[in-house]
Amino acid sequence: MKHMGNLTNEENWAARERLRMIEVLLWWRGWVRRGDLLDCFGISAAQASGDIQRFLELNRNGVIYHPNRKRYEASESFTCRLHRPSLTEAVTLLFGQNPGHAALAVRADSAPGQTGDLADIVTMPQRVVNDRAVRVLVMALLRKEAIEARYVSVNSSTRKTRTLMPRALGYDGSRWHARCWDTEQLEWRDFVLGRMEECKWSRKDVDEPPADVDWDTFVTLKLKPNSSLSKEAKAALKMDYGMTSDTLELRVRKAMVKYVRHNLGLPWDANAKEPWASYFQVVSEKKEA
User: Fold this and answer.
1) Cα(46)–Cα(24) distance, rounded to whole angstroms?
2) Which helix (H) or strand (E) covers residue 223, if one does?
3) CA gap 177, 193 in Å, rounded
4) Start-end ranges of CATH 2.30.30 in the chain?
5) For the chain, which end, N or C, has fewer CB atoms within 10 Å of the first or last residue's CB respectively?
6) Hey, is 139 helix, strand or coil?
7) Does domain 131-212 have CATH number 2.60.120?
8) What is the rounded CA–CA span in Å between residue 6 and residue 15?
9) pTM given for the model
10) C-alpha dihedral (194, 195, 199, 203), degrees to nearest 10
């Protein structure tokens, strides 16, 4: 709704983005100035003032203007009304980038203009894929057709061409797999995309594969902090994972349970004896009815 005397119409996409940016800065940095909007969006001073006034109408009791600092600051009662805050926003600000779509070096109070050392990310080897090979695989997945994929296997130390029927793509937390019917082994398997050297359309007659039961079936993993941990350690885990009870439940495709177990340091064998070297232990693993 557009208000008389106010240039900001929050039903407009650009206006919503500006209002959202005001809220993000107030939530994470604690203050905002008209200049932030001018630098980021290249709007007029009158429009920037209108945006801030409109935001104040939406959050009347949460923002206070400080004349000596010439900026609007979030009060203790400030709450977000236009979006749900995320850690990604905070990290983006600390890296010196704005929460919108333009370049804006967010100024820290203690070091104006210098935010590059306030956050960092561990550099890990990046997995790469053959774009042309993956393109054929994705098209085959959509068309439900078979492909000939030259695949390099780490486990068997082989490089061979396999006739595959793609079913889906899955991400295990660090790499993408193609869920495919292997016409040679006659079973559903996961193939790492980065190990596909080449994919081309298959000229073989491939029978319709059986249903991928493990992919279509969901299980619920119920976890709890490892019983060998101290009371304080268990409380820390519960806080870290936002646990509101003594257990944590994860709904996972049966075909991907092994990746969840691997990422959490749990044994892949559901029948393994406890305790093991992990923060968590499995209470139960039940298939959906």
Assistant:
1) 21
2) strand 218-225
3) 5
4) 131-212
5) C
6) helix
7) no
8) 12
9) 0.76
10) -140
